[in-house]
What does this fold into?
Amino acid sequence: MTNLRLLALLAVLLVASGPRARSQASPPPSSLSVHWEELTAADFSEGIRRAQGTCLLPFGILEKHGPHLPLGTDLLDVRYTALHAAEKEYAIVFPDYYFGQIAEARHQPGTIAYSGEIELALLQETTDEMARNGCKKIIIVNGHGGNEHLLPYFAQTQLDKPHDYVVYVFDKRSPDHAALMPKTSPDWHAGESETSKMLIARPDTVHMDRAHQESGADQHRQNLPEDVYTGIWWYARFPNHYAGDGSAATPQLGQVQMDWWIDAVVNTIRAVKADDVSLKLQSEFYEKSQHPLETKP
Ligand SMILES: [Zn+2]
It folds into this structure.
């Protein structure tokens, strides 16, 4: 047999074995990981189908959390919540993301504070890339209070130019009413609630014995009317980057708050999956914004 004939025979055999090889390929597993980084490429496609294009982007930060909690507290807490929620209502969860607004903690060790330009550009490229891979509904689950202005602004800027996906922001971490409520006030950064949640998410990283080493009290160092905003307001009130009393934390309060938070994210995933209006309206808006003079009242 000539080399040419041998090659032709091989080609025929390869073509003939193709469909059989495909039919022998194992079906996608009945349960898929919710972690983006743990899925194979093929299982990722199946995951996007099962999630109906819904993906979570849990948003953390690296910053001091009082004298007793780790730098990654917001990242650890929000990932715990998002991963548990996605296991209850399937969605694919993006890997660790901590590139948010934290300029006010630059004077403290371990803080990573990117510029505002990088924060917005990186977030846009991240959601663009997620959408290119089938995440047409992206829920940013915010774990960090310092993002409270950044994220609605980012969502608003999605109207600047057309996108074939919708950004949803969920930004609430504690219930307004529950069977068990915090007893101390203020109860903000590294305070009773946040420390309690860490006692559930990562108790091995909490140093309860150090919670009293610094003051988390409001130091009222600025005298301005309430409606006047300055960037230094947080440093003026909480220079230790501690706002509350972590020593009051309990695992019981942490469990109540974590259960509430996970349920709230589950409900958000369900509402977003059911939302067939936002993308349609967004597309209509982009189209009309091309020729505003034709828009009728
Ligand atoms: Zn925090």
